[in-house]
Write a structure and sequence with these properties.
This protein is α/β, with parallel strands linked by helices. The chain folds into 3 domains: 4-79 and 192-276 and 380-429, FAD/NAD(P)-binding domain, CATH 3.50.50; 100-179, Alpha-Beta Complex (Polyamine Oxidase, Chain A, domain 2), CATH 3.90.660; 279-372, Polyamine Oxidase, Chain A, domain 2 (Alpha-Beta Complex). Helices cover 33% and strands 23% of the residues. It is built from 13 helices and 18 strands. The strands form 4 sheets. Strands 1, 2, 9, 10, 11, 12 and 18 form a 7-stranded mixed sheet that branches. Strands 7-6-14-15-16-13-17 form a 7-stranded mixed sheet. Helix 1 packs parallel to helix 8 and helix 2 (65-73) packs across helix 13 (410-429). The longest helix has 20 residues, at 410-429.
Amino acid sequence: MADAHYDVVVIGAGVGGLFAAACLVNAGKSVLLIDDHDRVGGRATSYNVDGFTVNMGAIALEKGGVFERLLNETGVELDVREPDPATVFRVDGKIVNAAKGGLGFLLGGLTKSAAKIGAKFAAAREGDLPEEKLTTKEWLAGFTKNKTVHALFRNFCAALFAANANELPARAFLTYFGVKGAFKRFGFCSRGTIGVWNDLADGIRRRGGEVRLETKAKRIIVEDGVAVGVIIETGDVETTISTRIVISNAGAMATIALAGEAALGADYVARAKRTIRPTTIFNYYLALPKRVVEIPGLITFANTERLCTLGELTATCPETAPEGWHLYVAYSVPLDSMGPVDKQAEIDFAMEELRAEYPAFAEARLLVATPMAGDWPAQRTCAGWDMEQETPVANLWNVGDSVKPYGDGGTQACADTGRTAAEQAITYLSR
């Protein structure tokens, strides 16, 4: 006997799970959203460290598109502040603002092949894309050997996909930048990224959805190819929930473990194990009593091997630090983003690169130096290596960053998977 019944149980209150739940409650469905942590946001959440608001994972939340539209449909305003300029580049110790001229302007000062590279981005918009096996590094090598250009593209890949240019398919890279247009407008939440997720969770509750934190999914019950329930655990108490739909934001591999390999079939399981390629990124939060960088947005480096991005959060959101302090966030990606890493060696290398670019950081307080890796990766799978959202179980869908649309990334992509799964669930429920 089940202890309760819902139209849909959503496992995991990360971005994909939150947006799936939001779309479903907006359609009038009864929804239970659970997460085994004490906060929403999954791997893109926020914490307080010595009075500083630090984020794990995403800090830049995209304006416009499906992300903001779905928030608005749930009665939530996207509470972010846009930096201006949003992104700049640091090349040979100098800041280059390519906001008006775009990538062509930036590359034009580095290589004679800029026009040819730009033409390939234009061709991508018309559907002319490289074959799938070609990596971004291999694709770029066909135009230039310029080390700075290669380092810049490597850091594009690292910052946006938590992967290196020799790991990311060129087809996925060009799909993101050429077809999808990347994200041009974004902002930071003054309460930390979790502020937006808390707003969305509150919107779900206002629409009648239930959000239970510190509640673990133990098993998805599958009978005759259909998910009929979820066994959950809160504290030491197990509860059986019956449902007509299960949506999992736990990642494709975790979904297999929850439903059981027998329920999903040997072919699907083998393909998931062969396809899924988790990636690693390191998050750094540093504090200084003085401003080091006169840039409110994000800086992408062109002369580094691990360090890819730096930004001062307090330039846009002074509330993220105690008075008199400036809070900086940086990211680095190891040269093998999908393999084992030497944590301390990676941290030391990235901090050395940061101090080489900005010597003042030698005096900074290092608040956080954390890898997102292993079972808690930066990306559950590298872009271009995603599984489909549907599973062999008729009413079980995955959402999140192991089932992104091809060549997509970030919170916008995860929100889109939530929307897609919700639409499929609504159709299933209408039968």
